[in-house]
Structures are given as C-alpha cells and as structure tokens.
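Below is how a single chain appears once it has passed through the pipeline. First comes the sequence as given, then the structure the pipeline wrote out for it. We keep one example in the README because the format questions we get most often are answered faster by looking than by reading.
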Amino acid sequence: MKRLEFFFDYGSPYSYLANSQLGGLVQRTGCELVHRPMLLGGVFKATGNRSPAMEPVEAKRRYGAVEMRRFVALYGCPFRPNPHFPIDTLRIMRAAHAALREGVFPAFHRAVFPAFWAEEVNLGDPDELSRVLLEAGLDAVALVEAASDPEVKASLRATTEEAVGRGVFGAPTFFVGDEMFFGADRLGFVETALAG
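Resulting structure:
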C-alpha cells in the first residue's frame, strides 16, 4: 500500500478543493492517506512565498478568481468565498494537531473545511470554532484547551518545519514517497504516482 501525505492548512481554499477529491482517489488507488496539518503562514514566512490573494499583478489575481470558479465547477463541491478571509489559522491548526492526538481528527476535519469554505464561518473567532466543533459532536472545550498544550504546539511547529525542509512552499502539497506534487490541479499526477 502506497502512502499519500497531504500537507494543508484549513485557510487554503485550494486545499479544500483538493480535499474534496481525496476520498475517490483513495478508493481508486487503495493508498494510505496521511493528513499533515501545517501552518501555511509559517511556510510563507520561511520560504518568502505569499498567498495568491496577495498577488501584486492585478490581471493574475483576477484570473485566479476565474480559475477558482472553474475548479469548483470541475470538482463539484460546495464553495463560497469566506468574507472573513484571510484568517489567522494558528489556533485552528493547533486544534487539528490536538484532534490527531486525541483520535478524533476525522470528525474534526469533516467539520472544519466546509465551515470555512462552504458556510462562511469566521473560524478566527474562538467562539465560532467551538460552535462548529460542538455541532460535530466533539468536545470543543477539551480540544481548544489541548491546542494550548506545549506538546501540541511543538507538533504543529515540527510538521511545518518538516514541510519546509522537504521543499514545501504552499498548500496543498502532496508526497508519494519522496516525490512532491503542489496544487489542487496536480491530483492526476498524484494518482499516476500512486498507481505506478
């Protein structure tokens, strides 16, 4: 069984779009999907990269919005631009590592991505994040508290540093073994690598 690592940040709309396709990819290839939540802001800081939303070329920024609409249509997933974007995702990504540690990550993941990119929730607001987690049947208080645990903070920092060390400069980024694939539009290459 081949292993597919998915490095992502919930604040990345292209990570959301790619995530919507991973269930089918896993079913077709039989791969082991490993979620690697990282802090995209940390990756940007370490690499000198920036969000496409901060693109200084206006024509390229406008084209990015067109391309986003095309991907939403192609992938057939619900999508609404979040009016609160950009959101500082540090608390969310730490909570994701807490959810991994506590063994509740699948429910956490299923709740957070659509809240961010289909339901327009301001997940930068701790109360809103807690509400989303409670509605998903999770212990929001425990997860939010665990997100402040030094071990959880260190886990997110280590994953982000590992990502940068392996050449990651944005999200989503996938690894099949040592081979890296960047972007929601590279899933065809990912599937070929998994099948090869």
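The longest helix spans residues 58-75.

See the next section for the split statistics.
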